[in-house]
Amino acid sequence: MRAIDELLRDTHFAIRMLRKSPVFAVVIVAMLALGIGVNTAVFGVVNSILFRPLPVKDGARLQVIATYRAKTRALSPVSFPDLQDYRAATPDVFDGIAGYSIGFMGLTYQGRAPARVLVSWVTGSYFSLLGIQPALGRLIREDEASPGPSAPVAVLGYSTWVRRFGRDPAVIGQKVMLNGRPCVVVGVVAEEFMGTFAFSAPEIYLPVNWMSRSVLEDRSARNLHTLAHLRQGIGIERAQSAVDFMAERLSREYPVDDGGIRLRVVPERLARPEEDNARSNGIGVAAMLMLVELVLLAAILNVANLLLARVSGRRREFAIRMAVGAAPGRIFRQLLTEFAVLTALGGLAGFGLASWVWQILAAVHLPGDLPVRIDFHPDGRVLAYGAVATAFTALMAGLAGGRGEPRRNLHGALHEAGAAVASSGWRWRKALLVTQLAISLVLMIAGGMFLHSLRQAQQANFGFKPEGVLNLEMNVAHLGYSPSLGRSFFDEVERRVRKVPGVENLAFASSVPMGYVRSSSRLTAQGQSVSPAERVVAGKNIVGPHYFTTLGIPIERGRSFTEADDERSRAVAIVNRRLADLLWSGQDPLGRRFSQAGPDGPWIEVVGVTPTGKYRFLFEDPQPHYYVPMAQEYTAMQVLQARTAAPPQALAAAIEREIHRIQPDLPLYDVETMEEALNGGYGLFMVRTGALFAAVLAFMGLSLAVIGLYGVVSQMANERTHEYGIRIALGANRKDIALAVVRSGAVLLLCGTSIGVAVALGLTRFLSRFLFGLPVVDWASFAVGIVCVTVVTLTAMFVPARRATMVDPILALRSE
């Protein structure tokens, strides 16, 4: 009880003292709020993206099984036949295994025009594995998802039921059309379940047998994301051993499709949104948290410096209290209580700042029409992190600030009659400031590197010219069009859109570079004998004859496609330089042939070669890629790409009108310029986000360092006021006085800069993997960072230096 009474008295006294110094309290709370708030906000984002388990049964034990090849190490989904084998062979390791895939379909119901919806095709064990219960009706059964004929059924996402069907319970048993195919709605999933593909909530769930027959039977068709529940008491190492054994067995049994294929078990939360992200997510999170923790450390150092100054200014008070019997430990505890009150207020303000940041991020819309859902609401993990960050800040700032408590020679302060005294904490204050300057320089260099990376990315050679191109995506499968009807429709669209004033050229393609729709094939060169594991996997795009002119893609060798390259002529393709080198190294690729289907053909002849560009990701290594004519390989989903003389967006409405004159019910998606498309999640979005993130942290770190430097230099100048007055009275030049003040700060700046450069050299080698087009050590960013820190800090020393030159020697001597 005595301890509690003392704590209450100390708290009351601390509040009373802070009310006497409101400016000091506000500044401290603001700095703490900045450091704690930024840390909590970033951790909340990371938690929402990677750490928070899915709201399913035993979400923490949910694993992803991914395939990869030893050469590339890139993680990919699995095939349906392989998934069934995994499930049958590992019942002692996994409680169950399920798979799913996502894509778009056209939904027609109650006589309305088709609407594009995000669909998830799931295996029969999907919902039972995850422990999902229906909000209405029932979910998909095992027999309804098995290969072979079955009654077509669909399950609605909860938000779809609310938004599109008005919570009507009569929807159960109702028929809807998906891509022109009828199915019956049998249920609605629970409200809290938003699917398992991170950041996107499927609107409709369908049995996996809705996918094409080749997908269900072909072991090389790896397009199912695979989830597995670890059995209780089974570690991930044992699970990895079990799937390794399975991979070896399948490689022997199916050498054509599974030869060289290996498996990896990854915790589900680390493989978001797709399997291959597991290779970089952990490193990226570490980099983000490391940078924000530097900001928190800078805030702690700044607060500690201010606390040291405050303690130094209260030496006379402490001396009087000790003279009347107060113990040094009692004074120290009271100081810690005061620091704790400040930190608690800073922590609350910081959490408010973090909540504000989450609201802003939740409103951010990615380019394109892909529905993105990220839940930023704080959970227990975020609250615990914020509490730990606050407690750590209170402890570190309190201990550092407490170093200024005058434990010795206190009684001397009673005889100084209010005169300024040299603080016993100056050594600590200088050390803290040097560290803070080093941190600010590290953040400035990191920010400069990210901004330089963004500039390099914006000026990168993508392999095409994005300026002046408009994209419009359409999928006639949403209307149930047959291939022949679809071809006629696209021909009519091209004929009409070409007449729109301002359209210079146009072409169709099956995908957009660095978009979320992509396809690939395993290729075999004619006359070459290679094992299945050695076949080249190349990206693929199905394009119209004017595609290369419209996109500004040069043909290095050979020719482009022509109208004569149709279904009646020989199959042809255009390959990029990377694919040509992989298939026919050192040889002329023109006239050579390869197959998408296997060593027995059919064969496709190479008629042209393009430079290697960017196809899947901005950061990708040179990737093999090829193009085939739209007239030889039909696809219902196509992107109209129009090069315009006027700004592309200005012609969007006119082009949409022409398309809807042909088919008013056809929905158009991702209507955007190519430059906007390149800002998507696989393009410049992450580089822009990283640059903004690093720039904000650099500004915050530099601001904190400037405040700290200004405070230290100002107090140093104030404590030497008497000295400066005497020197001026004896004839000293006022410029020399100013230089003396600047010199005291410049020494600290030089020490901090030296340490910061050394730390940044080590840090940038780690950060370089997240930067585009930069060397491991970007000396330009180092130079800019050093200049910025130097100029800003020297400017911060101008005011105290000028104040020192204005000292009145008469007043300084009279104070003595």
Write up this protein.
By secondary structure, this protein is of the alpha+beta class. Helix content is 48%, strand content 16%. The chain has 24 helices and 21 strands. Helix 21 runs antiparallel to helix 22. The model is unreliable at 405-424 (pLDDT under 50).
Give descriptors for this structure.
816 residues; alpha+beta; six-stranded mixed β-barrel; 21 strands
State the shape. Answer: globular
Strand order of the largest sheet: 2-3-8-5-7-6
Strand content: 15-25%
Mean pLDDT: 84
Question: Can you count the beta strands?
Answer: 21
Amount of helix: 40-55%
Major sheet details:
6 strands, mixed, barrel
Poorly predicted runs: 405-424
What is the end-to-end distance? 49 Å
Please count the helical segments.
Answer: 24
> Structural class of the secondary elements?
alpha+beta
What is the gyration radius calculated from CA atoms? Answer: 33 Å
Topology summary:
Blueprint: H1 2-20, H2 22-51, E1 62-69, H3 80-89, E2 94-108, E3 115-122, H4 126-130, E4 134-137, E5 153-156, H5 158-165, E6 175-178, E7 181-189, E8 204-207, H6 213-217, E9 225-230, H7 236-253, H8 255-258, E10 261-267, H9 281-313, H10 315-323, H11 328-362, H12 380-402, H13 426-458, E11 469-475, H14 483-497, E12 503-509, E13 519-525, E14 536-543, H15 547-551, E15 557-558, E16 572-576, H16 577-583, E17 593-595, E18 604-610, E19 625-629, E20 637-644, H17 648-662, E21 669-673, H18 674-677, H19 685-719, H20 721-729, H21 734-767, H22 779-796, H23 798-805, H24 809-814
Parallel strand pairs: 3-8, 5-7, 14-19, 16-18
Antiparallel strand pairs: 1-9, 1-10, 2-3, 2-6, 2-9, 4-7, 5-8, 6-7, 11-20, 11-21, 12-20, 13-14, 13-17, 15-18, 16-19, 17-18
